[in-house]
Amino acid sequence: MSCSEHNLITVSQAIAQIQETLEHKADVEWLSLAEAVNKVVAADQLSTLNVPPAANSAMDGYGFNAKDLAPDQLTQLPVGLRVAAGDQPGTLPSGMAARIFTGAFIPTNVDLVIPQELVKVTSDQVEVQPGWRIGQHIRNAGEDIAEGQQVVVAGKRLRPQELGLLASVGIMQVPVYKPLTVALFTTGDELIEPGRPLPDGKIYNSNRYTLMGLLQQGGFKIIDGGTLPDQHEATKQALLKASQQADAIITTGGVSVGEEDYVQDVIKENGTVHLWKLAIKPGKPLLYGQLNKKPVFGLPGNPISSLVTYLMVARPALQQMQGLHDTQPASYRFRAGFTKKKNLKRAEYLRVQLQSQLGEQTIVPYPKQGSGVLSSASWASGLALVPADTDVKPGDWLEYWPFSEFV
Ligand SMILES: Nc1nc2c(c(=O)[nH]1)N[C@H]1C(S)=C(S)[C@@H](COP(=O)(O)OP(=O)(O)OC[C@H]3O[C@@H](n4cnc5c(N)ncnc54)[C@H](O)[C@@H]3O)O[C@H]1N2
Ligand code: MOO
């Protein structure tokens, strides 16, 4: 494989290549609506009824038949029927008004509703001014959902409003994909767990916690493989075992060109390396392969590189396996509030904030953009993309992903 920056593939090419190799999908289980928030629905959900099931009143007031009302003068009618929400509506006798409440089904012969504050009620009569129209304040049967209509498509993540929508058509249980099991490994003899003293030459393992958080946010089940030593045999044993237990594997570190980088060798010798190196900064040495047909994402070790490659490359693939139809996070366009001259051959993902300048939200990068500067990501509200071979000047439009879109 060539290492020249001109031949490196882009993020969208990488995603397309990876998605072609993904055969496995999460298993399906049935859950009640009370347990199904944030799950991905596994089959189209259709309504077997109209919502609302019958025409009903949008107001508290009085229902009339237009034939009983004079179009251009005051009409007085006695109240001959009372219908509250939940009542059987019945029939309005001719020449009378119906007392009706919001949500109550419309009685036969009623074809308009007038809110109570617009009529005058005397002891035994309702007085109506002209100015009404037939159909007013009546919500029609099936106005929200028609019988047979698809209410939720397969592959959609169930938000609270989808749960309510499913309940509104009487569905109580839904088929959803079970959480994917993802094995997570950090690599490197320099890593020490937080909470312990830090010996010379060592650093605290931060990627483990960033990635655990990302996987938890994705709703995945994590097999925490801990830290692999920089040893070929131990790396091989651990990754092969994980490929039998998990649906997918994520590693960080050990994918560049160093002598102590064993992840690539192990995948090459025991499975397939599909791609290595992307035209992005940070995250260039990203590796993707398969062991026992299970996808392995070898994220680069630098803390920002592993964060960015997880979000931009591994996450869409895991989402696809999780059954999600729309795997790309939404992005937005904002103007740059900065200048950047260094013209790179790689697309660059900057850690940025939106800041108000002259009444407009503009993109401002953290001053230190090194791939080891984790504080940049904590300061930032999201990522902005500077395309390859592009200089940025204030006012240029850039693509921006809020971190909140990845949750
Ligand atoms: N000769 C070259 N050297 C490097 C290249 C290159 O093209 N030629 N690429 C550089 C780039 S870009 C990156 S990114 C890194 C990626 O290297 P690895 O994936 O092999 O990662 P490591 O060498 O293991 O670690 C890199 C860096 O990150 C720190 N690290 C690793 N794991 C963790 C962790 N869990 N928590 C916190 N920090 C971690 C590690 O100590 C290193 O400082 O390679 C460059 N080198
Ligand atoms: O590509 Mo590395 O991830 O820039 O530091």
Automatic annotation (TrEMBL):
Keywords: Magnesium, Metal-binding, Molybdenum, Molybdenum cofactor biosynthesis, Transferase. Pathway: Cofactor biosynthesis; molybdopterin biosynthesis. It catalyses: adenylyl-molybdopterin + molybdate = Mo-molybdopterin + AMP + H(+). Its EC number is 2.10.1.1. Its cofactor is Mg(2+). It is an enzyme of class 2 (transferase). Residues 183-320 form the MoaB/Mog domain. InterPro entries: MoaB/Mog-like_dom_sf (IPR036425), MoaB/Mog_dom (IPR001453), MoeA-like (IPR038987), MoeA_C_domain_IV (IPR005111), MoeA_C_domain_IV_sf (IPR036688), MoeA_linker/N (IPR005110), MoeA_linker/N_sf (IPR036135). Belongs to the MoeA family. Catalyzes the insertion of molybdate into adenylated molybdopterin with the concomitant release of AMP. This is Molybdopterin molybdenumtransferase. It comes from Spartinivicinus poritis.
